[in-house]
Amino acid sequence: xxxxxxxxxxxxxxxxxxxxxxxxxxxxxxxxxxxxxxxxxxxxxxxxxxxxxxxxxxxxxxxxxxxxxxxxxxxxxxxxxxxxxxxxxxxxxxxxxxxxxxxxxxxxxxxxxxxxxxxxxxxxxxxxxxxxxxxxxxxxxxxxxxxxxxxxxxxxxxxxxxxxxxxxxxxxxxxxxxxxxxxxxxxxxxxxxxxxxxxxxxxxxxxxxxxxxxxxxxxxxxxxxxxxxxxxxxxxxxxxxxxxxxxxxxxxxxxxxxxxxxxxxxxxxxxxxxxxxxxxxxxxxxxxxxxxxxxxxxxxx
Length: 301
Ligand SMILES: [Zn+2]
Known about the structure:
This protein is of the alpha/beta class. Helix content is 40%, strand content 13%.
């Protein structure tokens, strides 16, 4: 009898672990960085201390790609320059979806609206983001962005915007116009009121603007939020508390997994494990966060 239990336990263990391995994942906040974007030599991962092998564009792509395949990340929304995104999309057009980042790490200007439309028609990008307007102390409700928002709404292009915080000492290191205040999700409301059909993704789940994020997600249920960066940079309990608060508020169908791995591809397994290990999430909620919600938001079949 004891033997029988043992056999059963071994099979149950194998089954559970296979299931975790086979889980399909969409990373809605993936970056296509180029060698030198973060200086040379590339700095180590601030959490793990691991120095990335990011000396060449090829090494960055190869290392990220290997981990995406290993963890069954079947789709990744690639935020970066269109030139760099093309490397990824060419490598694996089924897996990678190009997103136009602004501002980007190569100081590209925002294309004029005609070019912007042309690029959409030519399928050079399918998502507008990451919009790091906060790093310039700007907000999406400023008039200069209105024509772009209108185009995105008309063409069904989701907008994904950085909200919440930046790294410690951001204003002292290259972003003097950055403000904490401009990361407040309340700045999205005028845009949402004017553009009811716009698909909008709050990146980093608006951390630490919990009340504001909840209010926006409640009143505008078309708004989804990604958990990127806070799922590996924050102290675990702080991240869990924040995520749990959004779920308790009733928004479990609006939450999407993202890594925001930047140049540190080891953030991919770190952030995946953080969700897998969350004691308050059931299996269905994990599947929703890892895949189903993003599939619905991005229209991925
Ligand atoms: Zn961001």
